Amino acid sequence: MKTTSFIGDFQLWAYTVGHGRLLLRSTKSTDRQTQIDILFKDVAAVHLPATLRNPTISAEQATRGKLEELGFAEAPSDGRTLYTIEADAVSGYVLARNMVSDETDREYYEPSPWMT
To answer: What are the structural domain ranges in the chain?
Structure first.
């Protein structure tokens, strides 16, 4: 299982139906002079709160048994990965084809190049 940790306050920033893209973003702050974007591609399911503090994301194969544990009557995995997200006081998951992240000096109002 691959695990990636991030520091900061992240928000559900954008979702597009056409390509199933979900963007989580942590904007610049007094503690960090960069912006971090986390993009999930080809999303089949999401169960997350609107904000996440210091998320740790673990990736594992989306098996039928694991998806049934989460309440799926039929497993819509189609080779997708189950990304389990643990953050301060909350947890959730994203079922997606893949995930990428990017840390840049973009400003709050600048769109992610992945979402255009």
So the answer is: 2-105
